[in-house]
Design a protein that fits this description.
The protein is α/β, with parallel strands linked by helices.
Length: 298
């Protein structure tokens, strides 16, 4: 049975979690390009603590299919709770133009969960990748997808949706486990630990050469033993790359932080992950799924 983390007393945020915002001019350049085209980034919608650093480098992670999610994960800042917007038929072209204007050499495409769509948005990922490549043929594209499980069709439909994205040949296929097995229920409403592992396993079965990646948030009440178990589970399905970061509570309506893991513990867990065979590991309090993604080995 899944156990919901109890609410600890509110504690001040540790000093190691305070990141610089970046220069206003660099922030505004990316924000202007995004807002002018009516598209979205997870940097803004998710209030990523690294957006100042990433914007200063002219990078961003694009959030496809609108800013409203059909699920209600209790850790996530992305909008939810009402009907998502219809797809903007110009969004793939708008994203491609933004990548061109920002001069990105490596771009990450992610999305809200769209359980209302027949293919859960898999075809939209493929369309957007094609549009980006048309204007930016040298740009590498990483995808960070939902589990494509919803609506009708079950496991067979999920497999076909994953295949649609794999066949578009991203440089890396990322799908986040988010938390340890025990905490999946209260943290990831509508998602499932084994199902997420199956996404990563199916990618490898379809294309053994395609790098796969996943990430965990720490601080939700997990134990070190549970973290290490999750790392073993990811390696068993061939996951190549890993991110470990601190969960930060977006608002009082979200799950509370149970524990702030200090930088030295992230360093130690990162070393354990490397010993387990992950080829690329980012582990630190402010690390997020797309943090320095373009610096991964090609």
């Amino acid at each position: 049975m899944n156990s919901k983390p109890a609410s600890p007393p509110l504690t001040p945020m540790p000093a190691w979690l305070r990141s610089p915002l970046g220069r206003a001019s660099e922030l505004s350049t990316v924000q202007r390009i995004i807002k002018q085209r009516g598209i979205h980034t997870i940097c803004e919608e998710g209030r990523c603590p690294n957006r100042g650093e990433c914007y200063a480098q002219g990078t961003a992670t694009f959030l496809l299919m609108g800013p409203t999610c059909t699920r209600a994960c209790s850790f996530c800042q992305v909008d939810k709770g009402h009907a998502p917007m219809p797809l903007d038929p110009q969004e793939p072209q708008k994203v491609a133009e933004s990548v061109q204007l920002l001069g990105l050499q490596y771009v990450v495409l992610t999305s809200v969960a769209r359980d209302d769509l027949p293919d859960q948005g898999a075809g939209w990922f493929a369309q957007t990748m094609a549009a980006v490549r048309h204007l930016n043929p040298k740009t590498q594209i990483e995808v960070l997808t939902p589990d494509f499980w919803g609506g009708t069709g079950g496991a067979d439909a999920q497999q076909q949706r994953i295949a649609t994205v794999v066949q578009a040949q991203p440089a890396c296929y990322n799908h986040n486990l988010e938390t340890v097995r025990r905490l999946q229920g209260p943290v990831r409403r509508g998602a499932n630990y084994e199902r997420s592992l199956r996404v990563l396993a199916q990618v490898k079965a379809m294309d053994a050469t395609m790098p796969t990646k996943s990430g965990l948030m720490l601080g939700l009440g997990e134990t070190e033993a549970e973290i290490i178990e999750a790392l073993h589970d990811l390696r068993e399905v061939g996951c190549d790359r890993l991110t470990l970061g601190q969960y930060l509570r977006p608002s009082l309506a979200h799950l509370p932080v149970q524990h702030y893991w200090p930088p030295e513990e992230f360093d130690r867990l990162g070393a354990i992950a490397r010993d387990l065979g992950f080829s690329h590991v980012r582990s630190g309090p402010l690390v997020r799924s797309s943090y320095h993604a373009g610096q991964a080995p090609s």
